[in-house]
Amino acid sequence: MPDDADRASTVWPWTLEVRRILACATLGGGLALLGIGQDGEPSDHLPPPTLIVDLNAAPAELLSALPGIGPKLAARVVEARREGAFASLDDFDRRVKGIGPATMARLAPHLRIDPPRGKADPQVVRAKLD
Q: Which residues contact 78 (CB under 8 A, 6 or more apart)?
């Protein structure tokens, strides 16, 4: 009956030292790939995904995913929106209690305000008719 050393040599054609070198090289290569971004430059971290929402349409659950907005502030946004659609980011800032300059600076890249549905822009309608 073959002993363990003979059985290992038939399963693994390389010596123990060679297998250790291959394992280290594989591990090192994998770690190196994790540290390099898509452009080939070292990457400290991946950029976070960008979330852009329409203030006049987003539900409270989606609003609370934005930086600086929790469930209570999201509920205040929805409540203010019931009074009428937001016309601009300044209008949003004025009408919603708890939105200060720091929160607005964090939120601005994530917000957009689409025109209310059902109300056509007169400029666009006139251009289509001409």
A: 59, 60, 63
Instruction: Give the DSSP letter of residue 108.
Output: G
Distance CA 20, CA 10 (A): 17
pLDDT in tens, 14-44: 677 767 777 767 777 776 666 655 555 555 6
Chain centroid to CA 71: 19
pTM for this one?
0.52
pLDDT digits (tens, 9 = 90+) for 42-53: 556 656 667 888
Q: How many CA atoms, within 13 angstroms, populate the side-chain half-sphere of residue 72?
A: 3
Mean pLDDT of 97-106: 88
CA 16 to mean position of chain CA atoms: 45
Task: Give domain limits for the chain.
Answer: 4-34, 53-112
Which residues on adjacent β-strands are paired with residue 112?
54
3-class secondary-structure state, position 48: coil
Q: Which CATH number fits domain 53-112: 1.10.150.320, 3.40.50.1100, 2.60.120.40, 3.40.120.10?
A: 1.10.150.320
Residue with structure tokens 């280290």? 24
